[in-house]
Amino acid sequence: MTETVRFTKMHGAGNDYIYVNTLLYNIEDPVKAAIQWSVPHTGIGSDGLVLIDEAKIPEADYSMRIFNADGSEAMMCGNASRCIGKYLYEKGLTDKTQIRLLTLSGIKILNLHLDATGKTVESVTVDMLEPVTKNKAQLSTDDGSLTEGLVEADDKEFRGTFVSMGNPHFVIFVDDISEIDVARYGKILEYDPLFPERCNIEFAEVLPSGAIRTRVWERGSGITMACGTGACATAVAAAITGRASRESDIVMDGGTLHIEWNEQDGHVYMTGPAAFSFEGEVALPEK
């Protein structure tokens, strides 16, 4: 008899994942599950798989692991972390409105903003910790940094800035984002030798309003409706290059995220929505 697990489909600004409570279900092969379940039409369809568990250390309340649609494991996902906050609170797993979430890139603090009834999480602010602009493991330059550096992709040159939010990002500011073939150039740049661990690619345009229109090619998933760490990296890159202040609204395909790069503690704070899509049962991949 085929074993099944209960899953919840959620999204943060359109960045959608399959969530499984591993306190209830054991996912022996999350790589295979992420690949199989993420496929549209024959699977559930998603940007990947997120596993929720209790933290095994006293400094955190819960933990997350995230696997992209291609099975690769990511360090962290901002949109997924907001969804986990909503999941834990509205499913009755916690009554805390501040949750310490253990990720592969450290413990993230989730602050839940409730509606007037106190039952529904309307939005979540995540302390994404400090951005990293030098990382030799993720960027093959002499000092592991790159600001407004030129990178070639097929027939074009792009000028971009490297920012790591746990996950590596390369943020490219353009004059007109509608003219960029995100799928074509994002895929090429993700695998550029400059990025030993591959890379998330953001194309961004500063709008007259001051908001930043951003489209994302997400490492391991392709074009996604939004990317939380990508929004943070875009805001940091905009501030570093003098295109914006330390607070920005990042307008992505699936919605808008508000990002603050706090001057006092150096941390990046991301605020945005989280939503349930649907729930169901799915068969575990065959061994």
Q: The biggest beta sheet, please? A: 18 strands, mixed
**Rg, Cα atoms, Å:** 18 Å
- The helix/strand series, from N terminus to C terminus, equals EEHEEEHEEEEEEHEEEHEEEE
What amount of the residues lies in strands? 35-45%
Number of DSSP helices? Answer: 4
Distance between the termini: 13 Å
Tell me the structural class.
alpha+beta
Ranges where pLDDT stays below 50 over 5 or more residues in a row are none
What proportion of the residues is helical, as a percent range? Answer: 10-25%
Number of strands: 18
Mean pLDDT: 97
Overall geometry? globular
Lay out the secondary structure.
Blueprint lengths: L3 E9 L2 E7 L8 H9 L9 E7 L7 E7 L4 E2 L3 H13 L7 E6 L2 E9 L6 E7 L21 E5 L2 E9 L3 E6 L8 H9 L9 E7 L5 E7 L3 E3 L3 H13 L6 E6 L2 E7 L6 E5 L2 E9 L4
Parallel strand pairs: 2-3, 4-6, 11-12, 13-15
Antiparallel strand pairs: 1-2, 1-18, 3-4, 4-5, 6-7, 7-8, 8-17, 9-10, 10-11, 12-13, 13-14, 15-16, 16-17
Structural commentary:
By secondary structure, the chain is α+β, with helices and mostly antiparallel strands. It is built from 4 helices and 18 strands. It has helices spanning 30-38, 78-90, 182-190, 228-240; strands at residues 4-12, 15-21, 48-54, 62-68, 73-74, 98-103, 106-114, 121-127, 149-153, 156-164, 168-173, 200-206, 212-218, 222-224, 247-252, 255-261, 268-272, 275-283. It has an 18-stranded mixed sheet that branches. The two termini are 13 Å apart. 45% of the residues are buried.
